[in-house]
Amino acid sequence: MSVGPLLVLPACTAEEPTSTVGTQRAWGAFIPSVTPAPGSTRSPIEQLATLAGAPPRYLHRFAAIGDSVPITDLDAIADYGATPLLTLEPWTAGLGVDQPRYALARIAAGDFDADLTRWGTELASWNKPVLLRFAQEMNGTWYPWSIGVNGNTAADYRAAWTRMRSVILSAGATNVQFVWAPNVLTLGTSGFTAAYPGHDQVDYLGLDGYNWGDVPGHRWQSASELFAGSLAALRGLGGDQPILITEVGCAEGLQAEMKAQWIRDFFGIVESEPRVDGFLWFQMDKERDWRFNSSVASTEAFRTGVAGMSGQP
């Protein structure tokens, strides 16, 4: 899920964080901003930690391939002690799906090597650990790089990925680890295994999944229904890379408790999957109110889940 101009939208509040994230599993989030607003005494990351009851290990940023590298945001994340997950999107944001300029075959042919070299060079100069996620959710239909859109094939995707990784590493960005992240298998998506670039090309397996609730074009899906089959498909790829749920969010249900129960069930899935390193919640009121703190009940469920991951009673 990409984002445009952003505002922080507060909801329920909670006391200061008291726990630390455990070493086996970690949590993180996308938040609209990671730098303090003018006059603010606390950063958005600190506010997020307060809501969750524990500090995040990961913070997520999005950038288009022609954008400048967001060094200020990366610095804010690293200074806090977290690791940035940086999603690099080969498109012009805001112009929709029909952008043949960014067809995967063009990326594979080297047409964007100058941009990729710039990204690699600047990330190498930054010289701190960063997870780089490229062309996510390729098994959907909503991006210019989607398979089946703009003439793209699974083979084109693999070739574009390999080119991207090679160019960035050739620029010296040995501090980068690469995250390959399809969308969960649900309405509007197709299988993703044919787009997998290979174990030697990927450091983390990612997965995006949202429970949109009962709205036109969607229906309420349990956490297990949304994630179980896709996690099994990732395991079926073989290899031993850790899995990150790189985007997750849940809409409000028809009853007040439904979202809180969904969050509890989601934490159960995270804990039950041995290869899942952690997740990043999409903490924004956008198409739906995805935020974990959209109600008192869902906030408490999330805080309890994070505390459990951290070994808290």
Can you offer a commentary on this structure?
With 313 residues, this protein is an alpha/beta fold. It has a single domain, classed as Glycosidases (TIM Barrel). It has helices spanning 44-52, 71-80, 104-108, 113-126, 154-170, 223-235, 258-272, 296-309; strands at residues 26-30, 58-64, 83-89, 130-134, 176-180, 204-211, 243-250, 276-282. The chain has an 8-stranded parallel barrel with strand order 1-2-3-4-5-6-7-8, surrounded by 4 helices. α1 (44-52) links the parallel β1 and β2.
| Number of helical stretches of at least 4 residues | 8
CATH first level: Alpha Beta
- Second CATH tier, the architecture: Alpha-Beta Barrel
Number of DSSP strands? 8
CATH homologous superfamily assignment: Glycosidases
Keywords, please?
313 residues; alpha/beta; TIM Barrel; 8-stranded parallel beta barrel; 8 helices; 8 strands; 31% helix; GH26 domain-containing protein; glycosidase
Summarize the structure.
This protein is of the alpha/beta class and 313 residues long. The chain has helices spanning 44-52, 71-80, 104-108, 113-126, 154-170, 223-235, 258-272, 296-309; strands at 26-30, 58-64, 83-89, 130-134, 176-180, 204-211, 243-250, 276-282. It has one domain (26-309): TIM Barrel (Alpha-Beta Barrel), CATH 3.20.20.
Which helices and strands, and how do they pair?
Elements lengths: L25 E5 L13 H9 L5 E7 L6 H10 L2 E7 L14 H5 L4 H14 L3 E5 L19 H17 L5 E5 L23 E8 L11 H13 L7 E8 L7 H15 L3 E7 L13 H14 L4
Parallel strand pairs: 1-2, 1-8, 2-3, 3-4, 4-5, 5-6, 6-7, 7-8
Helix pairs in contact: 4-5, 6-7, 7-8
